[in-house]
Design goal:
The chain is mainly α and 355 residues long. It has 15 helices and no strands. It has helices spanning 14-42, 53-71, 79-95, 107-131, 141-145, 151-164, 183-200, 208-227, 235-241, 256-265, 268-286, 294-304, 307-321, 329-333, 343-353.
């Protein structure tokens, strides 16, 4: 869908037209990324990581967004476009994290993110430890006493993960190195995206299904840290599970951390307690019984909860998020008319915006 040659939008509605185009590009790019990710989870043969159709649409979004910010620097974007931008950012880092791409974050950004995660977990656990024995240091002995896996075993685990995504084992290793984006790196973005969904969508709230998904996200993130990234000590485990309502939170009003805090509080005390129970159930699955080998136990956990099955559930969650706002107007126009307008009203609208 493009502006018809020789036609221009009414200057008074130029912001609305540019938002329509941005909304369209975001929607199409998200759908393309999810389709590519779905293909990797379902195909029987190896697929090369690049090139992909999403490269072009991501470049178009980046270019158009730059121009949008220049032309409308003093304007606020709509909540729908803002949410879709949030959804695109998360979808991009999640679906392209296993291989080097144009979307790979620089190491400096990843290191800053990891530092913030450590600070978040440390501050959050000060209060959580007081009311929850599961986070007590005595429960983390297996993680404190265990050495990291050998490079050989880490490589085997990495290749198994790549195979489950039907990606060839790279000659130049990337996945599993500190320069790659881990599930743990993406976990704060998942929480922020979920809180944004509640904030921008009437009637959307925390459900038991979301809690199960979020708790398994923490489980998968922790297991990957020890079996693929070679983590040792309890910090990675704490970072993965340090999520929930904190009555002592000093997060600044309007900050992302504050929105996540309010998100966990949005369902009231019953929801707060239910999340703690589900989260702690998954945390206990990661912690081995006394005397059991940590890495053997985590390997058993990874077999019981396969990563590709979790990612299939996460894929369905993201597909659901694409539907909580109406389809972009330009997508609707491809069918001939807008959902809330007659054919005549649709034609008048198209003339107004220069379509």
């Amino acid at each position: 869908m493009a502006l018809v040659e020789g036609k221009q939008a009414d200057p008074d509605v130029q912001l609305d037209v540019d938002e329509m185009i941005m909304d369209y590009l975001l929607y199409v790019t998200i759908k393309t990324l999810l389709e590519e990710f779905s293909m990797r989870l379902s195909k029987d043969e190896e697929l090369p990581p690049l090139p992909s159709g999403s490269d072009l649409t991501l470049q178009m979004v980046d270019s158009f967004l730059h121009g949008f910010k220049v032309n409308h620097s003093s304007n606020q974007i709509s909540s729908t476009v803002k949410f879709r931008l949030h959804l695109l950012q998360f979808t991009t880092i999640l679906t392209r994290r296993l291989y080097i791409s144009t979307s790979t974050p620089p190491l400096t950004s990843l290191m800053d993110l990891r530092r913030l995660q450590n600070e978040h977990a440390s501050a959050w656990l000060v209060d959580e430890t007081a009311r929850n024995d599961v986070f007590n240091p005595s429960c983390m002995t297996a993680f404190s006493d265990s050495a990291p896996l050998s490079p050989c075993l880490l490589k085997i685990n990495r290749n198994q993960a790549l195979t489950s995504h039907h990606l060839p084992s790279a000659k130049d290793e990337f996945y599993g190195l500190e320069t790659s984006t881990s599930l743990l790196d993406t976990l704060p973005a998942f929480m922020a995206l979920s809180s944004a969904g509640v904030k921008t969508t009437a009637g959307w709230s925390i459900t038991t299904a979301w809690m199960d998904l979020a708790a398994e996200y923490a489980l998968q993130a922790a297991v990957e840290q020890y079996l693929v990234y070679g983590a040792h000590g309890p910090q990675a485990l704490r970072n993965a599970f340090a999520w929930g309502y904190d009555e002592r939170s000093q997060a600044r009003e309007g900050s992302e951390e504050r929105e996540i805090h309010d998100f966990f509080q949005s369902g009231g005390e019953e929801t707060i307690q239910q999340w703690r129970a589900i989260r702690d159930e998954h945390l206990n699955r990661v912690i081995p019984d006394g005397g059991d080998d940590l890495h053997q136990h985590l390997k058993h956990v990874s077999q019981r909860f396969p990563l590709h099955e979790f990612e299939a559930k996460l894929l369905e969650f993201l597909k659901g998020l694409t539907t909580i706002h109406p389809k972009p107007i330009l997508i609707q126009l491809e069918s001939g008319k807008l959902d809330e307008m007659t054919t005549e009203e649709t034609e008048a609208f198209k003339a107004l915006v220069g379509l």
